[in-house]
Structure formats: structure tokens, C-alpha cells
Amino acid sequence: MLRSALVLLTAVLMFAGPAEANKIFVTNERGNSVTVLDSQSWEVIATFPAGNRPRGITISPDGKELYVCSSDDDTVRVFDPETYGELHTLPSGPDPELFVLNPAGNPLYIANEDDNLVTVVDVKAHQVLAEVPVGVEPEGVAISPDAKTLINTSETTNMAHFIDTSTYKVVHNVLVDQRPRYAEFTSDGKKLYVSAEIGGTVSVIDVSTAEPSIAKKISFAVPGVLPEWLQPVAVKATKDGSRIYVALGPANRVAVIDGASDEVLEYLLVGQRVWQMAFTPDEKFLITTNGNSNDVSIIDVQAGKVLRSVQVGEQPWGVVVAPD
Q1: Where are the chain's structural domains?
Q2: Cα distance between the two ends of the chain
Q3: Rounded CA gap, 123 and 90, in Å?
Q4: Residues 241/259, Cβ–Cβ less than 8 Å
Q5: pLDDT the model gives residue 20
Q6: What residues have CB less than 8 Å from 297, skipping those under 6 apart?
Q7: Contact present, 50 and 309 (Cβ < 8 Å)
Q8: Do 141 and 109 touch, CB atoms closer than 8 A?
Q9: Residue 86 contacts by C-beta under 8 Å, 6 or more apart in sequence?
Q10: CB 32 within 8 A of CB 52
Q11: Cα–Cα distance for residue pair 308/43, rounded to 1 Å
């Protein structure tokens, strides 16, 4: 009996093989390209052109379409993640910077920095569904887990705008600190984190009630780093909400925050001018883009350590990891 069980276990392990790697896609804002890395070897496996000033990047839930904001081309380019060939473009409005896909994979919500709109695009029909007026210089976008609420942050108005996705109307505005850049929901939909780059804070907004309100503001302090260098930009939350990660721009640090208390636990030293971040699907690793050192940092999430840096293109900006 024991011998049979061992034979069966050996066969299972042989057929299971090593875990399959995921592709990591990094936009290079000044390099006008996308760099592709392998999540097992962490080596660069491809680079392809992506239009002028590529910034925001995301991928469809089925992993078949890669979306890139070509900001200076005023368009969203759609690529095949396997061949890297351009499939088509999508209308976006002027200067698309960041966007978010509906969890179902359609539509795409795009922040247009130059005309104070959020453009809603049907990615199948390649048509604009709506244009939502928001504050001045819209940038960050996030969608609630139930897909009923879209968030847009306006850099100059200093607000998080709550948009009803069924009517495309702004239903709430929450004033945050100066120059909000990014928004991130927890997976249970109860909290929203909004970073303020110049304000130097992250607002924790309670969205579990009818009227969203700021429950707490998180500030940062790193020995030897000037306060004006502590500029929160990207925010990422683990699926269980236990950890929140905040990229601190020119401070070259990622802050690790306890998701229950919203207190800073530690700071991880990464590359220069850390900007955007993305988890691997298993959340074992967090990848950061570092615009001034032209590299990405690989963070071991469980160990709380930076494993290595990998050189990519010129001024890396956005990052997304292909799904399993």
C-alpha cells in the first residue's frame, strides 16, 4: 500500500512539472516601448514599440489583450501579449494616462488629463460609451469589486470623484490632500486608499456607508530622507487586505502598511523614483517601476525583502503581470 502511494505521488509530481512563469509588461515612458520579463528567471525576454510616451498599462482578464496608454498619440493601443503585435487602437480622448478595466473585461475607463474627462470605451465595439466630466487633471482610476462605483482622482481639484457606473454620473466627491495620484480598493470593497503626491499622505476612505468619508490619513517619515521627497503615488493592497504597499516616488522607498491598523510597518529601499507597482497572481512578488534608475525592483512579499533589480527601458512607468 505504501509503495503504491509513493509511486502515485511520484507520478503526480512528474506530470505537475514546475510552475508556469507569468509575463511582466513594463511601459517605458521615454523609451516609447514595452519591456517584457519572465517571472521565474526575472530576465528580459522581449522589447517592442508601444507608441509615443506609453504610460498606463493593463491586460484583459483572459490574458489575450494588452492595453497601453500612448499618451502623446492620444490613443490606447491594444497588443497581442504573445506575439507583441499591435491588434488595433481604441479611442481614448486626449492624453490618456491611467485607466482601469471593468472586472468583467469591458468597458475600459480612461482618465484624460488634458480635458478633465473620464472616457468610457467599449473594448469590443471600439466605441466611446460616455464622457464623464470630473475635476482638473484627472489621473487615478479604480473600480469597486462589485463594479458599481468608479473612482477618479483629480490632481488639481484635489478630490476623489465617485462615479456610478450605471449612469456615468458623479455621485460623491471627497476632498483629499494635494495632488492625488492613485486610488485602490480593498477586495472586500470597504476601504479605498487615495495617495496624495504633494500632500505626502494616503487618505483611507470608508466606503462601507452611504456617504464615503476619510477615516484616517497615513503619513510617512524615513530617517535621512527629506519630507518633500516622500511623495506617495501608486498603492497596492493584497487580496486579503492584510498589507498595503505605497510607492514613495523620489524617496526610493515602498512603504509597507498594516491593513488592519493602517500603520506603517517598514520601508523597503528600491530603485530611483519608484512609480507604479504590480503583484504576481500568487502575490509572492511585487514588482516596482523605478523611473530614474531605468529598472524594476522585485520584492519578496512574504520575506519583506527586495530580491533584485532588473534593467528595462528608458524611464519605466507602468507595469502589469499576465494572469495565470
Answers
A1: 20-321
A2: 36
A3: 7
A4: yes
A5: 77
A6: 254, 270, 271, 274, 287, 288, 290, 306, 308, 309
A7: no
A8: yes
A9: 77, 78, 79, 80
A10: yes
A11: 11
**CB-CB contact of 278 with 24 (8 Å):** yes
**CA separation for the pair 316, 260 (Å, rounded):** 32
Q: How far, CA to CA in Å, does 316 sit from each of 120, 122, 191, 320? A: 26, 28, 29, 12
pLDDT digits (tens, 9 = 90+) for 118-154: 999 999 999 999 999 999 999 999 999 999 999 999 9
**What burial class does residue 324 get, using C-beta atoms within 10 Å of its C-beta: 0-12 exposed, 13-18 middle, 19+ buried?**
exposed
CATH of domain 20-321: 2.130.10.10
What is the reported pLDDT for 19? 59
Residue type present at position 44: V
Residues with Cβ within 8 Å of residue 157, at least 6 apart in sequence? 134, 135, 136, 137
Type of residue at 36: V
Q: How far is CA 133 from the centre of its chain?
A: 23
- Peptide bond connecting 107 to the previous residue in cis, omega within 30 degrees of 0: yes
Name residues of the chain where pLDDT drops below 50: 1-17
Residue type, 10: T
Q: How many angstroms separate the CA atoms of 222 and 231, rounded?
A: 12
Return d(Cα 312, Cα 44) in angstroms, integer.
7
Looking up cell 503583484 gives: 279
What is the pLDDT, as a whole number, of residue 113? 86
Residue with cell 522607498: 253
What integer pLDDT is reported at residue 214 of this predicted model? 98
- d(Cα 144, Cα 322) in Å, to the nearest integer? 21
